[in-house]
């Protein structure tokens, strides 16, 4: 299982709304994530807007590709894009994995 961690930056003026939107993620979005191989997926948000994402998957590139092909993901990404700073394109295209340097099992 591949562990993936990535960072994004939420605009400070949109933090409250971003948190609110993630209290009720669309059921079809949740189902699509599970179906396309996104497991144990979590988002952590710091008060300054730093967003840390973590997920486990068999193949991150395949999971991203499969998710990008869903209609619900296109709608979700279009709605989420305005929340982020320094992003060229969709949020899911800006997720550059960090290099894992240590893991305690």
UniProtKB/TrEMBL annotation:
Signal peptide: none annotated. InterPro entries: Dimeric_a/b-barrel (IPR011008), Rham/fucose_mutarotase (IPR008000). Gene3D superfamilies: 3.30.70.100. This is L-rhamnose mutarotase. It comes from Nonomuraea bangladeshensis.
């Amino acid at each position: 299982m591949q562990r993936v961690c990535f960072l994004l930056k939420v605009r400070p003026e949109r933090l409250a709304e971003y948190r609110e939107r993630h209290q009720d993620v669309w059921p079809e979005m949740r189902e699509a994530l599970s179906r396309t191989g996104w497991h144990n997926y979590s988002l952590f948000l710091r008060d300054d807007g730093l967003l840390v994402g973590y997920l486990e998957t068999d193949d991150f590139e395949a999971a991203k590709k499969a998710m990008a092909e869903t209609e619900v993901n296109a709608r979700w990404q279009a709605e989420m894009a305005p929340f982020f700073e320094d992003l060229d394109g969709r949020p899911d295209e800006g997720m550059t994995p960090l290099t894992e340097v240590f893991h305690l099992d």
